[in-house]
Amino acid sequence: MADTTVRTATVDDARAISIVQVETWRSAYADLMPEALLRRMDVDRNAERRAETWAERHRDPRVVDLVAERGGDVVGWACVGPTDQDDLPGHGQLFAIYALAATWSSGVGHALVQEAEQRLRDGGFDRACLYVLDGNDRAAGFYERHGWREDGHTWIDERFGYGGVLVPLLERRRIRDLGEAL
Known about the structure:
seven-stranded mixed β-sheet; globular; ribosomal protein; acyltransferase activity, transferring groups other than amino-acyl groups; ribonucleoprotein
């Protein structure tokens, strides 16, 4: 098994991050989302949009994108920062964490979540939240093993669609006390 290195991402990583996001969605969500929606995801458009909005998204120094590398190749990505959840003032949020399917269960996700939690602590957060797509049992189990517990809150994400049809996604919130040892 190759060593995993996690580092702060830069705008130059936009394309590699987009590849990880698109490929992971297609693998992890194949049974949870319409195939047409996953097929419409476009690495080039995603990378272009990500690069264009990079500076604005990172105005707050607590917003950090991380990439996991193996052998110099980006194989995972995570993003953290302050949450915008009204009922969780002062909390951080793990907005995204993805690893290429070929690296699942090999330590990439573990390395990313550990560094993401440390970056949240470094940003002054004692507690954080994240959202998991309903039915994504693999991710739910991963987070559970890392101390993230469901708090009963759900959210309907209405940002996705295809062919003019909105695809609402039910997501379940998890909370983690970042000072709690595992």
